[in-house]
Amino acid sequence: MSNENYHHENLKAELIKKGLKLLDEEGYENFSLRKVAKACGVSHTAPYRHFDSKEDLIMAIALEAHHKFNQCLEEAVEKHPNDNKSQLKEMGYAYIKFFVENPEYLRLFFLSDFANNIKKMNHEPLIDSEQPFNTFYKAIERCQADIQNGERKSVDTNALALSSWGLVHGMAILIAKKNFSYEGDYLELVRKVLWGGTFLNL
């Protein structure tokens, strides 16, 4: 089977994969279907079999990225079905691990010109799709419900969300960008922080 046939049979997936790499390297403004086609080794018209424009391809990249991220958060929740606090800790660990192992997604979501442009596109399928933040926020609400049921002092849901998200997001950026120098296993260090008694110390 020739490379060209391989690309044609798997072209959509290949365009998304190579498109993510190019979007990360080139940025939104310099990104084009022609460049992605070249990276895939197909004609410049081939991508139009699956995508009408570069925006359509970018949306496909974003949807896949959101799906993968959301999936890793849901898997973290499933590890502790009866312990809401442990769900949040596991989710925090999964959050950091996902972005450390996939820094291109971290840049795509938070450190590039993509985020601003995605808002301008107002793409309904992306807005209505499974959102990682919703998965996270539901876990926050379950944790808060536990606090209230235990007759402990109520904690503001948004304050809890901001503090826990801010901590894991900050660690993800510091590790992914290699701003924090450490000779040991970063992810083991993350576990020490999340399970060390200070995270979600409610």
From TrEMBL:
SUPFAM superfamilies hit by this protein: Homeodomain-like, Tetracyclin repressor-like, C-terminal domain
Pfam families xrefs: TetR_C_33 (PF13305), TetR_N (PF00440)
Keyword Protease: no
Domain called HTH tetR-type: residue spans: 9-69
InterPro entries: Homeodomain-like_sf, HTH-type_Tx_Regulator, HTH_TetR, MT1864/Rv1816-like_C, Tet_transcr_reg_TetR-rel_C_sf
UniProt keyword list: DNA-binding, Transcription, Transcription regulation
Protein name in the entry: Transcriptional regulator
Gene3D superfamilies: Tetracycline Repressor, domain 2
GO MF: DNA binding
DNA-binding region residue numbers: 32-51
